[in-house]
Design goal:
This protein is α/β, with parallel strands linked by helices. The protein has a domain of 233 residues: phage-related protein like fold (Alpha-Beta Complex), CATH 3.90.1690. It is 31% helix and 19% strand. The chain has ten helices and twelve strands. Helix 4 packs across helix 6. It is elongated and about 70 Å long. The chain starts with 20 loop residues before the first helix and ends with a strand. The model has no long low-confidence stretch (mean pLDDT 88).
């Protein structure tokens, strides 16, 4: 069970097409081999950290210099950076809570599907021998627009080498939070203004008042209203609607961080969302997220300690699926 101790780590492991560093390690040292052992529950990367005695979290976390004590250990540093950024994205991201599917691709071009239902009646009675209602699924007429979001890490190895990894992780997670917020803005933009192929949602004027949400609920049929997106100003107006001032909803907000609604929908705050607009949607039908890989780092620079200008980024785009699965409420400020 000591196979992980014999693996040769090198830069080229970050350049394998369609595979992350950890996936390459897993092929060489499968976690399945450790079932029923003290190392069960660790992935291949974590076993390499243990091999080189590198602690990335906790009160006994090592320093940045601990990665560079050996040439092989230095190859683990870009993955540490990527994982820390990913943790920040997962902690801050609400984008995965408004998409129906996440598609991972290995290219910069992607054509999604288009799904449309025929007929004016959602549930028509079908007589004997009559044709069933049709759902048309076709290839999209255009490519999904992908956007690179990220930050440039500007420092020097001398400035960071003695810093605790636990502290550096805080800064890296904030980079992840920034990327997640930018992706959320891209997702909302695809809903509000269209994704380049399908148009944006239709907006009905409102106050907003509770009756506006009831009307939007009706317009969404046969889709479910399970998610509400609002900017800061809209959130303040919504939370002051009498029907939203439910004591049980307040308890839920204190316990989970999510504001409940009388309609049972999740109310999500999107800072920077266009003022005067609220989007209601069925998150299970409205939007697809397309990712070109995970968190991308300048692995060569990080391994060679060239931190002066090391880029950290993620590439993603959003496409609408069912046009009717999202509606809007507009109001005057």
């Amino acid at each position: 069970m000591a196979g992980f101790e014999n693996i040769t780590l090198e830069k080229g492991m970050y350049a394998m097409p369609g595979k992350s560093f950890t996936q390459v390690l897993e092929e060489l040292d499968s976690s399945d081999n450790y079932l029923g052992t003290p190392l069960e529950g660790m992935d291949a990367y974590q076993r390499q950290l243990m091999r080189y005695g590198i602690r990335v979290s906790g009160p006994d976390s090592g320093t940045v210099d601990s990665f560079f004590a050996t040439t092989s250990g230095a190859a683990l540093f870009p993955e540490y950076v990527a994982r820390s950024v990913q943790q920040g994205m997962e902690r801050a991201a609400r984008v995965t809570e408004i998409v129906a599917a996440v598609t991972n691709i290995d290219a910069m071009d992607y054509r999604t599907i288009s799904a449309e239902e025929s007929g004016d009646e959602p549930f028509p009675v079908v007589g004997e021998g009559a044709q069933l209602p049709v759902t048309h699924i076709t290839a999209g007429k255009g490519l999904v627009q992908l956007h690179k979001r990220g930050r440039m890490l500007v420092s020097s190895y001398e400035a960071l080498r003695f810093q605790k990894l636990d502290l550096l992780s805080v800064a890296l997670r904030q980079i992840g939070a920034y990327i997640a917020a930018a992706q959320m803005q891209d997702a909302v933009n695809a809903l509000v203004n269209g994704d380049g192929v399908k148009p944006g949602v239709s907006f009905e004027s409102g106050t907003p008042a509770y009756s506006d949400f009831i009307a939007a609920w009706g317009r969404l049929t046969p889709y479910r209203l399970n998610t509400i997106l609002a900017g800061t100003g809209a959130m303040e107006k919504i939370l002051n609607i009498a029907e939203f001032k439910d004591p049980q909803a307040g308890m839920n907000f204190q316990g989970t961080g999510y504001a409940g609604t009388p309609l049972g929908a999740k109310l999500i705050h999107v800072p920077g969302m266009e003022s005067g607009k609220i989007v209601v949607l069925d998150k299970d039908c409205a939007l697809e997220m397309v990712q070109a890989g995970g968190v991308i780092t300048d692995s060569d620079k990080l391994i060679d300690r060239q931190l002066e200008r090391a880029a950290i980024s993620a590439i993603a785009g959003f496409a609408r699926i069912y046009e009717g699965a999202a509606q809007g409420i507009s109001y005057s400020e």
